[in-house]
Hints:
The protein is mainly alpha-helical. The protein has 6 helices and 2 strands, in the order αβαβαααα. α2 crosses α3.
Amino acid sequence: MHSANELMATSSLRTVHLRLKPSEKAALQQITEPLGALLLDEFSQMQGQLAHADALRKTYGRQRAYNLDVAKYAEPQQTFGCIPHVAFFGDEIQLPPVPFEHSLLAPIEGTSDEHKVGVSIFPGMTYVYRLTRAMRFADPMLLRILDKMRTEGGVKLTATDWQALMNTAVTETNTGVLDGCEDFYQSCYTWSVVDMAYAIRSMESAKAKKATLF
């Protein structure tokens, strides 16, 4: 989202700093003017300030082509530069950004004006669809646990389900459970873990294949 708005990870998201330089405006016009749809994934991990910046900069980028009033960039009829179709996708129980208070789902008390505007834009979507059927998994126990996680108010796991969940933990005493998973896809939201895993798992995979890594 940063690069699509001519922003860097270190760029300020304050409204006053989101104004475009001539070179940025030309680049953003080229990117945004032809857009017919905007699809934003992982909304639960999106910062309110970043959602606000996206809406404002899309308006800047499409202002010339569609005669937009920039002052109305946060209004439902014109937000995100009047792109015809805007959709947010995601899972509300996925991990939010760190810290949590930057999330679109967090309380807005004591937050910045930019965050509040970003949060106010989010519920302006015309339609909301909640998908309830898990498509990636077939294990009945896992499906049962996931269903309970999504039950409003919470549901206590049975002793059997809880033990099955605890059995997936990798500790110093059962590292053997990782044997044979050298080709598995792996993910983690902590970069320090991912960075180490890249090197370690790559070497383990090469060792298992008896192949040269570099």
